[in-house]
## 1
Amino acid sequence: MTESLETTTHTTDSGPGGYAAARLRLLQEESRSGPPRRTALADLTDRWLAALLTGGAETAGIARGAALVAVGGYGRGELSPRSDLDVLLLHDGSADRSALAALADHIWYPVWDMGLALDHSVRTPDEARGTAAEDLKVQLGLLDARHIAGDAALTADLRTTVLADWRAQAPRRLPELHALCQERAERHGELQFLLEPDLKEARGGLRDATALRAIAASWLADAPREGLDDARRRLLDARDALHLSTGRATDRLALQEQDQVAGALGLLDADALLRQIYESARLISYASDVTWREVERVLRGRSAARPRLRALLGGRGGRGGAGSGADAGERSPLAEGVVEQDGEVVLARAARPDRDPVLPLRAAAAAAQAGLPLSLHAVRRLTAAARPLPVPWPPEAREQLITLLGAGESTVGVWEALEAEGLITRLLPDWERVRCRPQRNPVHRWTVDRHLVETAVRASALSRRVGRPDLLLVAALLHDIGKGWPGDHSVAGETIARDVAARIGFDRADVAVLATLVRHHLLLVETATRRDLDDPATVRSVAEAVGSVTTLELLHALTEADALATGPAAWSAWRGSLVTDLVKRVSAVLAGEPADDWSTPQQTTAEQERLAVEAWRTGGPVLALHARSESLPPGETGLLTDVTEGPPEEGSTGPEPIGVELLIAVPDQPGVLATAAGVLALHRLTVRAADLRAVELPSELDAAEAAGAAGGVLLLSWRVAAEYGSLPQAARLRNDLLRALDGSLDIVARLAEREAAYRKYPRRRGVHAPPPRVTVAPGSSQLATVIEVRAQDAPGLLHRIGRALEHAGVAVRSAHVSTLGANAVDAFYVTDDAGAPLKPMHAAEVAQQVEAALTSTPGA
């Protein structure tokens, strides 16, 4: 039965002004938020649009045969403060086009006048079905169609036919939907790991939650329901708060908005907000994985059933009959109590999780080793029935955990299944503090817990390099476990690691090794990139901390696995070469060999000697550029063209470049480090490492030449990379360096001009960088004082540090530069005029002067 358009709900807010005022009052009500506010906003909008439909129908002369339908998020009643209005004007085709156009204009224009985003269409039911058949997104929107006003029968008929079409076409449309979800995930990333996530489009976001509703509507499969509605609600609440705080229709939770959004939701801070969002996204992602596997299983079963059905109908005992061959229900044993069935790992019929406390770890290890997912039913049965493990764990439980961690990439999915049902925190209670914990450092690509699992995955590939792979894998899993506690996470982690290692059954000696690995998991990379490896104090300090060759071997592999699991900026062939060099030196000391004496002059290569002689004879700087690669021994270089002619061809197996080495020999004079760094900054070269030392001139020089060489020659060895574009020519670098040294090129002014030019353009909004920090590293060297600088990386930073050290009146023996994402951590070995370490008071003053110079405006 059709409904007259005149009988639609009346509202006192029919005019735009009345609706706007009512809408504003609703959004400002602090007592009403979340689902009640979204529902109230949808109801208010329904009444307004219904009144517009009624008035428009009267004007256009349309008595019946038209309906206003909400689709998409509006159809679900999920209106956020700045959401689009997705509306369909449905008609039966009886009205003429001009009348329909007038009716549509009467509805759409007031919406546009309000400044609301509108996604609208005017269609008959057949046209709506046809468009849905061609456009998957339209069909998904129609699955949530909800009647607003007008002819209710039209809306009901459309919903019935759209749902019938969807269920009939599900075997074809669901794979299309799955591909759409995967493409969106690749484009927007995973919500549960992003520092600035898109709440709607990223994997695990609102789009995926909507896709799960669509799958359920197909009747082919259904998502795990536990917690799913709450996860969706939390994401919608965050989006509401984001809309209200920004006043914009945005779904991206930018860094600068997070504290305000957290406050609006009653959360402690931005980290608490992100953790809540990550937990919700993780639940939706896991539900999506489980549901899509079920869809694939059902579709695969239908495909396999068709030939069997045809054979049965063909009769005469065809080979495809029910009693022939293997079927989808066949079970293959994987471990005690664990079998494979239909592409998943399930529990055997005879399994007794209530009597077998090791069964959860055994099932997980079997699944990871087989590269198969754990079935949802199996995980939930284990969660509900499994007995807690005794403390300490029995040897089998420990071995199964190590087997799980050593399975490689397949460990991740199995671990996520256990974590989704709370089994991980039951096995390892300390895991709760790191679960879904965000990492604000942009170098990190994962949350703390996922980073730990990824480190174990990376460590599994390095297990052949160590004598105790079990300790390596467990250390990888625990190395950042202290990040959930206050203070230095390495110190806190050492204590936690001791407790966990003892709980899972390691003996006292192994517990001590694991505690050392966790306490010093950053030692090698920080020392290699920030300390002078030619200083015997550096090597001895690492040897004392590590204690044994076996522990050093494990720490080396853990360092690489940790960095590889962090992100691209945390590891490179260059960093790997520095760490390997440090490990070789420490190994020699642990084996009883003496550390190199820094007071002994370093051996000068033939090329360095040639450059030094030429620099002294010409009285100016001499430069050489070379590529270094892993396959070349120390001191030998390849040609510059190895790295400047573009990337290697596909399939190339040539050595990987670890940086471009720039050698500069220059007659000794004040300010060389700062001047050279400034020239490199002008040419947009990023400095990865720097070393400065005096070079002895060869004894073959005649007496006159030797007499003139009293001033000596400095050799600067840099590892550089082009900020963008190609490397500059050595001749241009030499020319600018020569001009800078003689004062005709004002480096300070040029860098200040560039900084001022940058400030003219609006930069990407974000949190302000913390101020620089300059400290004295006590006990790092017996022959020099180590000044450590931590600051936001910026063009000319090394130049400014060099100038500050020059003004402080200290000599720089060497510099060690490390850049991690946007952060620079640089160490400078400095001495006084006599070549001795600085007195403590003097060192503190120098550190203060450098920090003050970095805090001031560049060029001031």
## 2
Amino acid sequence: MTAGLLLTAPQQATAGPPNLLSNPGFETAGAPGADMPSCWSTSGWGDNDFTFATVPDAHSGTKAMRVSLTRRVDGDRKALVTETTACAPTVAPGKQYDLSAWYKSTTPDVSVTVFRREAATGNWQYWTDLQNPPVSAGWARTEVRTPVVPPGTDKIAWGLSVYGVGTLTTDDYALEEVVAAPPQPTCSGTAQECAKGRWEVIPAKNPVRSMHAVVLRNGKVLLIAGSGNDIAQFDAGTFTSAVYDPANGSFRTIPTPVDMFCSGHVQLSDGRVLVMSGNKGYPSADGTIGYQGLKDSYTFDPATETYTKTNDMNGGHWYPSATILGNGDVISFGGLKEDSTGNVTAERFSAAQNKWLPVNEVNQTWSYWGLYPSMILMQDGRLFYSGSHTFGNGTPGTGASIYDYDANTITDVPGLRNKDQRDESASVLLPPAQDQRVLTIGGGNNETNPAANRITDIIDLKQPSPAYTAGPDIPLGLVDTGSGKRPQTGAEGKMYASAVLLPDGKVLETGGGLHDRADPVFEASFFDPATNTYQAGLATDPIPRTYHSASFLMPDGRVMSVGDNPGNGTYAHTVSIYTPPYLFKGPRPQITSVIDTQWVYGDTQRITVNRPVAKAELIRPAAVTHSSDPNQRFVDLPMTVDGNNIDLNVTSNPNLAPPGWYMLFAVDANGVPSIATWVHLGGPSALAATAQPPSAHEHTFANEPGTPKPNPAKRDSVPVAPAVAGCDRHYGTASVCVPTRFPAEVKETPKARCDWLAAHRYPQRMKVHGSDPLRLDQDRDGYTC
């Protein structure tokens, strides 16, 4: 249902008095000489022509505020509650507030914009946009509920922003505290489950050696293996995928046309999965040739469970990135070409043309981004390279940067610690996406093979010149270095960790290993973006989950974990399911109806719930591999509440929520989520088709990141060592990874190295190809140890 239908008639506020605003109707004039009424200020930014005026065309009383834009290139203008102690209302962390105003407008480009003050510093900052009220020729009332007030906030200010040419008149503002007390949680499991959650290993086994996991729009899971890092299957042309159906716990093997081992993948706006590149060839036995990337590209249709070929990419990209843009296009960087060199060509898949564009139609910086570079879409359409990648060192410079496709520039951002030990780290856009904060977790380096670190770094991309700052260390867990589990100590952390956005707004961090493809860490924790703290000591997955593992959110609010492919070449076919503590807090809320599952940007959509909820959000389904899912995001849906009927306000900005299918969750005040309902976000729903949707409301975040660095000259590729995967190819097969460099605690003697290999269950006698750089063939019989 559209906002116009919902809000043109007066509605009774669900929160009680008093109105916490001073001078809500502009009736009290400002101080002598002031050009605005008392407790109101002009605000805004950008290149535009505008006027502010107090006018007699009031909803009640004698005055109203009129803001007009007659020319706009960018930016917005708004009458804002004055950010002073006397005027800005005091709020309490953990509470929610209903904001309302009467308005008339000639443009849909209007947004309810809220700022908050940090109590400790007194500094004001943008908080969030809540709603896009529709065009209204007569007086209409807009009402929306804030998210829970973050810790450390003592005051808020707000107003209606105009960011399109037109006129907005407002009057009779109100801000009222939501006074309903949340129900007390009850524990429906054991005390341990209610505090730490529960893992269980399901009876069914994953039939394929999957490296890639995609949650499909029907709730099933696509698991892609290709050759499964098994050279025997590659030589036999045996390439596999499977679809898991959580409704009955079954797996179905899917014919797979090429070796999609270490491909890239992303969900397209129509729900198909775009799978790009993969493995053209394994490294040679003598180690002179490395992995080789495919040009091939396919889409997978969840309805038919079949692959369909697209046109080829412009080059091979073994380990490519894949990021969906706000218009539904996909952009991809990095990886290895057909000849094992590093690919410097940016690739763009056109959603409108359903094909990869020629090189000359794609902006090129000729930069090498490495393998699986984590490229996260920002709210203004630029890409943030978080510094997370797979294999080797990070990019030259600071290790993290902002890429502006339109300007074709790369600008480094500072602060990422140990940038060359972020191999197989995880990065996530923290909940909600509107906050534009990114967290990186752990990592190591497969070439030097130190113990993985505990480092987390956080960057706020709303800052004019954003920089990473130190986050809390990953909690310590138990590690098995080959002789049984022991407690981690000191700086020991993890690489290959999974980071999963949960519907209660926290991040589950689970799995990982202490060294490259070895030494699993049994630890799980929650990261809370509201407090920037970890909750340690959760239940842990009983199955090791290191290299080629994946964890991801299911529509029922649980987390599924698959895979583990250590250096000895084995693979874990067991599947684990984690039930978070929030599912042991009593009955979960239910979404009893959704009027329309086809959503449009800037729309208002009505749902009905069976009892009060505190928030609702869209979570983009997973498409994860190698700790990397740069498209994972949690988009807040501000609510207008009328009993059990809730109007959800959808962002007008497709860069915050790229088009596609999403899981819609409703969550109560105790963090208990509903089962998700699938909705499609994109172009206009049936009821919204007759109304002009608002434009994207973009902000001037990260507008002073520094000077872009020079782009390299046009080139075909960059050299990449065949040992980029961190494996010494003189031993065994390509499916077995004897480390080029053993962990530091292993003495550089044949016996110590052989003992390490035996403790980690490597084949007892591996063939030596050519020379013996690690001195593992002491009796010179052509086999190790």
## 3
Amino acid sequence: MAVVDRDGLVVSANDTFGALLGKAGAALTGLVAAELMDLKSDARTWHAYREVLGGRQAKLSCTRRVKHPDGHSLWVQVSVAPLPAEEHGVLLSLTDISARRELQARLRHLEMHDPVTRLPNRTLFFERLAAALEAESYEQGGTGRIGLCYLDLDGFKAVNDTLGHRVGDRLLAAVAERLTRCADEAGYARASSPLVARLGGDEFALLVEDSTGTDQLADLAESVLKALQAPFNLSGQRLSLSASIGVVERQAAGTTATGLMQAADTTLYWAKADGKSRWTLFDPERNAHRMTRQALASTLRPAIERGEFTLEYQPLVGMENGRLRGVEALVRWNHPQFGMLTPNRFIGLAEEDGSIVQLGRWVLVTACRQARRWQLDHPDEPPIFVSVNVAVRQVWDSDLVADVAQTLAETGLDPRLLQLELTESAVMGSAGRPLQALQALSDMGVHIAIDDFGTGYSNLAYLSRLPVSVLKLDGSFVRGFQYEGEGVPPNPADEVIVEAMIQLAHRLGLSVTAECVETSAQAARLRRIGCDTGQGWLYSRPVAPDRISELLGTKACNQAS
């Protein structure tokens, strides 16, 4: 302890006080106390100290680091309190807290570092990331950019499961050493090296502050992949390993830790999905597509209930006379945010989450009701059939036969005027319940068509044992028929293949519909080789029900609508 007068000079100090500063207590008399404690280096502390000296503040307590004459530093707790009024001064006391500070530092190190790899852990990583994204960090100089390589070891779980967690931990430690080496090499001749951290499990991160662009991050990712390619030798046991890396590099301004990590996590997922053992750079357009996909998936079911879906109908035209024989119902989603969406934007999502059952039931009822309305509105014309697409999940997750029967009963539509389309791969793998459903529908009088035929198994012998009545040739076959007499002649094999398929189909009692008919030359060649029905823009694009009413009783093949 030491007594300090109102002017801030040491009046007296005991030997213990002097020992902390490396001097005898008596030798401190007359010296400026604030300089001994370095109280002027902190403006707030210096102000509070002067307030106590002037009697305007009751006390002061702070922590200072002081240097001993022998060269070592120590941490002390400084307390300043006023003496009785007649003493005209303050009492200054010091407590050596160096051991406590050292213990706190050791505990903090343990708290902030992974015990297996000795790398900074998730807590310290996010602390550093948050600090790097603070405005004062990048406004004081540097590039103002930040980069991140988010890494996940491919197949690491198999190592733990087969060799045990002890070997797994040793492998993680070896990986950490190689990552640290890559970071040190990347930081050579730069202001600092990337921070390497283990975020948990087999996930690691390399944080690059003041990055110079995507090239720097790409080089770092490449070096990491190369470093991990060499086998790991763990006590004579050789293990091979690879990794997938998501790479993000952007301006620090406007970036949040959450946003950066979400982008990195998404990009790591892309790297895994693209085949693993690679790095992938964050792509805003690809991410926007993913976000759109998620937005669509989350609103699919409510959209069905809100009536946001509508049907358009594309004519199916007889090749011999060009007259309308039927239509294919094609669903559209009139999305309030993204506008009119075609099936390729949402049918896959509906199949994934099961909402295809609810949507498919709505399409079936709406299409059958419309087909019946055309029949009633045009009693003098031969009735046209309606073709409805059916997903395999509708067969498995719902009673499709009961749904069809109920719909036909409610709408009064003749079963022979309903055609259900399934993809070739779905029908060719039919067995058990799906096959029983198809057979029951066929027995009911409903026609079964194979959509996109020729892109899958193309097993006509197997098809002969299924209740199928129509084959719809995939458009890739029909596109080879576009030759109009100019340019390079088509490959003769295209026509030979299609003609052979049509003849085989007819021998099996099946009719054939050609998709994607766009020119009169295509129609003429398909008609010549015996194709029964055509569908495509030559006849009409998908249109509203009113336009189909106009086409009834007319030849549809003269021009596109």
## 4
Amino acid sequence: MRSEELGETLLPKRLALPIFASDPLSSVAYATQEILLVLTLGGLAYLHFTPWIAAAVVALMTVVVLSYRQVVHAYPSGGGSYEVVSTNLGPSAGLVVAASLLVDYVMTVAVSVASGVDNIISALPSLAEHRVLLAIGFVAILTAMNLRGVRESGRAFAAPTYLFIGGVLIMVGTGLIRYLLGDAPVAESAAYGIMPEHGDQNLTGLALLMLVLRAFSSGCTALTGVEAISNGVPAFRKPKSKNAASTMASMGIIAVVMFVGVTTLAIIAKVHITEDSCRLTGIGGDCNGFTQKTVIAQLASSVFGGDNSIGFYFIQAATALVLILAANTAFNGFPLLSSILAQHRYLPRQLHNRGDRLAFSNGILALAIVAGALLWTYKADVTSLIHLYILGVFTSFTLSQLGMVRHWNHALRTEPDPATRRRHQTARVINTLGACVTGLVLVIVLITKFTQGAWLAVLAAIVLWVMMRGIRRHYDHTAAELAVDDPRAELVPPSRVLAVVLVSTIHKPTLRALSYARAFRPHHLEALTVSVDKSETEDLQHRWQDLDVNVPLKVLASPYREITKPVVEYVKGMRRESPRDIVAVFIPEYVVGHWWENLLHNQSALWLKSRLLFTPGVMVTSVPWQLTSAAHADHPAARAPGSVRRGEPAAGRGSDTPAGRI
């Protein structure tokens, strides 16, 4: 797609919702389960805390959604938390948010895909041994779809997201109606008992508080991805801020309704689930071979009449799809944030470039590689991955709300209109509340999850922060070094140009290089060869005299058969003798048309050029000679996607000089 077609990729709200909100919407499939998994560490005695914890999560989500609606209106350029914090709290704090979000986006892909695979295995237990392969395969599919562009991926992902929303709402509605009619659904695990993790224990005081706080922090996974809309405002149709804010409100309402419904139904159906199957009592048989169904699977089975019902398979298919596609939130957020960071010189500039379909292809590929490696390392296990999750997102939540408070303070100092001041004051109250609440949750998450594995996420964010600071220093130093102080001084021509043509044998590429060097009209021109075989060198000298090209041939002795070092030392010697002169080195090369032909030639020219490029005052010029295979390779069908845009040749260049000796 042409750059001018970028406007055609902008999203209406109906497509923006599944693209940017699939992560928080799909989190209801495992947020309730994460609360139950923690509470059952103490057996069944503490499940009565479930509704209170769910209520706290709902209150937190409401505050966060309202807070981020302020961000969308105040900063419509798409930087989200990073831009808010960088502008109001300084670049270093902004980088903390950026590092935290990048880590969180990676975790979003890993957790969402792993959770989706879990739901597939709940319906088809025979696939359990292929868990890792399935997870990595889904990441590859998501990557390919996102490389096609935001709008195309939105169309593909919209249907599964809306099917999941509809399926969950139908399941919750059906289950609640049955409950009100006196036919409450009963989960298959309702009859199972659960042994406490450390034997009989009655938790009180601080121990009980820590259990409840840990369950709350696990339930906060329902909030992951909420900030993605604020990062993706530029992808919306106009009016961008209004449409983004409306989409965020819709996302918050739908997510809250589904989360409350699933949690209520889990309490009614008496779902019992643990991290370790061997802590379940009453299952019969070998506990090590017992596979527990996910909470959403147990609810679907109890509501729709068993594991073989159409409703069960529909919910499992929709849940698995939306959980896997929830990773698409990260596939949109990560490349956008990476692009902004690259534009600000905190990440490599390649991440700012758009691909063939106007998507940030390099960011998409980087995310896929890191997330795939994480799934492979943790064997696509949700329980292991979840402990690395949500720490980063609450770091960005807290700092962005603090940044917004400062933003409104600054706006109120300069705003004379009373009505506008009242709106700003209301927004400041919302953001202040958001900062206090999310800051408290951040402390809770840090305390309860740090030793569980969250320290790895903290370490990754710190390493990323240091790396981005280093990249910025490199770009700043490079820009300072390349800046032009006195244009007239830089435009002063060299005293002389000394041209050197590298020769290994006499044939057409060599003669073309000589002709090309002469066209530059250098002050001095000579040919240079390295003597590796005495008889071949003597033959070359005789042929050179017979050719009568009126260019002196310099022979460098190389008793150890080395090519690069003698040439580099000779050129450096020319520079030392005439520091104000420029040495121009011409290297004849031939171009082959197939990659395998490159394997038949050595790479001496590449080594030579790479060494000469580090020599000050030396210009290196490649003089190509296209072989017949290269001429026939320049066919559109032989080009890779994007090669025309990137200016890539269809053929491969042979990177050694003629005869492979220089």
